[in-house]
Amino acid sequence: MTVLDPQDDLRLPRQPGVVRRFWARHEALADWLIAIFWGLPATLITLITLETRDHVFGVWGALVAALLVVGSCAGIRLRRTRPVLAFAILCIALLPVPFVESGPSQLIPVFGVYSLAVYRSNAAAWIGAAALEVTSTLYVWLVSPLGTSRTLAHSPAQWTPIFGIELLIALAIGITVGNRRRYLAALIDRAHQLARERDQQALLAAVAERARIARDMHDVVSHSLTVMVTLAEGSAMTAETDASRAATVMRQVAETGREALTGMRQMLGVLGSEGEEAALAPQPTAVDIPRLVERFRELGLPVTLRIDGELPAEPALQLATYRIVQEGLTNALRYSHGPTRVEVLIDAASDPITVVVDDDGLPGMPTPSVGAGQGLLGLRERVSALGGSLASGPHESGAGWRLAATVPRQPDSTGKDTA
């Protein structure tokens, strides 16, 4: 079974707008354009203003201030991957603001607050904005006597409310965009998780279905083949001394083979292509157990049957009882050597119901066992699905084998196995 990557068949809606999709694909270009078209005017204004005025810092001071603005623009490129570092670098642009008549460089740190809200967290953005408002106000208050009287940062009373409004606008936009971004990321991640869980559930269902098919195939094929092999060996032994008896036995072989083919067709019909109607037939019930026992008697197995009480009408419970008896008798026929007693006991009068198949045969048939234990494994799964337990093993004396199962009268509805 081919497992698809969840992203292969996950059809997420495409981001609306040609322009938005373009910028989403070219994030680096967007950052460089912001740095150029916002940082370049801020640098030129800072340089020209400080260089042309008779200022205390002179030409070299103007050049240093312009370099600070240029260097702070490098934080724009880092804002997506390292927003805290980018915020710290962008704040450098505030240093020459008190000395410039109109400073667009004062808005450069606003990009840092926006980036904290979008790419880090809302809490980080609020902390960064508050710290920037307090430190910038103290800085303006300290250096305002040195600045020009026509700049916004000349008076802390003017700077604090106006710059605070700018930060609040950046916070509002950044928190809105960041929440939307994180919400979409969570939705996409959840969709991917659901797709992976769907594939995992499909795999588990396929494994469970394969196990069920293998178990049912064993119930039909193993039993029928064991009966056919036994009949064929008996026919070969009596062919020379009693030809009519051998012919009768071979007809029984043919009848058993036809029954096995019918069961196989029914199972393969269920697995057929969609639209093909499968042949349906009732599953064995407790009523069929005496006929099953009689058939093994005809094969020479000394079987005795005892049923105490009446089994509930639950189909899964009756089918499980039939399969337990079938598996126990089939194994006795295949693997026990010269049994003189094979007992089948079904105690349906108590709760839980007990089903026991016991024989006194010696191990070591002329042909070694070719079984792989699938019969008992599948039987244990069937009984466990009904809330019961299964035990099997030889007697302490080494002679004989005992298969015992207990199943509650009211099986768990979540574990019903009607196949």
Automatic annotation (TrEMBL):
<dbReference type="Pfam" id="PF02518">
    <property type="entry name" value="HATPase_c"/>
</dbReference>
<keyword id="KW-0418">Kinase</keyword>
<keyword id="KW-0808">Transferase</keyword>
<keyword id="KW-0597">Phosphoprotein</keyword>
<dbReference type="InterPro" id="IPR003594">
    <property type="entry name" value="HATPase_dom"/>
</dbReference>
<feature type="domain" description="Signal transduction histidine kinase subgroup 3 dimerisation and phosphoacceptor">
    <location>
        <begin position="209"/>
        <end position="272"/>
    </location>
</feature>
<feature type="transmembrane region" description="Helical">
    <location>
        <begin position="123"/>
        <end position="147"/>
    </location>
</feature>
<feature type="transmembrane region" description="Helical">
    <location>
        <begin position="56"/>
        <end position="76"/>
    </location>
</feature>
<feature type="region of interest" description="Disordered">
    <location>
        <begin position="389"/>
        <end position="419"/>
    </location>
</feature>
<protein>
    <recommendedName>
        <fullName>histidine kinase</fullName>
        <ecNumber>2.7.13.3</ecNumber>
    </recommendedName>
</protein>
<keyword id="KW-0067">ATP-binding</keyword>
<feature type="transmembrane region" description="Helical">
    <location>
        <begin position="83"/>
        <end position="103"/>
    </location>
</feature>
<keyword id="KW-0902">Two-component regulatory system</keyword>
<feature type="transmembrane region" description="Helical">
    <location>
        <begin position="159"/>
        <end position="178"/>
    </location>
</feature>
<keyword id="KW-0547">Nucleotide-binding</keyword>
<dbReference type="GO" id="GO:0016301">
    <property type="term" value="F:kinase activity"/>
</dbReference>
<feature type="transmembrane region" description="Helical">
    <location>
        <begin position="29"/>
        <end position="50"/>
    </location>
</feature>
<dbReference type="InterPro" id="IPR011712">
    <property type="entry name" value="Sig_transdc_His_kin_sub3_dim/P"/>
</dbReference>
<keyword id="KW-1133">Transmembrane helix</keyword>
<dbReference type="Pfam" id="PF07730">
    <property type="entry name" value="HisKA_3"/>
</dbReference>
<keyword id="KW-0472">Membrane</keyword>
<keyword id="KW-0812">Transmembrane</keyword>
<dbReference type="InterPro" id="IPR036890">
    <property type="entry name" value="HATPase_C_sf"/>
</dbReference>
<feature type="domain" description="Histidine kinase/HSP90-like ATPase">
    <location>
        <begin position="320"/>
        <end position="408"/>
    </location>
</feature>
<dbReference type="InterPro" id="IPR050482">
    <property type="entry name" value="Sensor_HK_TwoCompSys"/>
</dbReference>
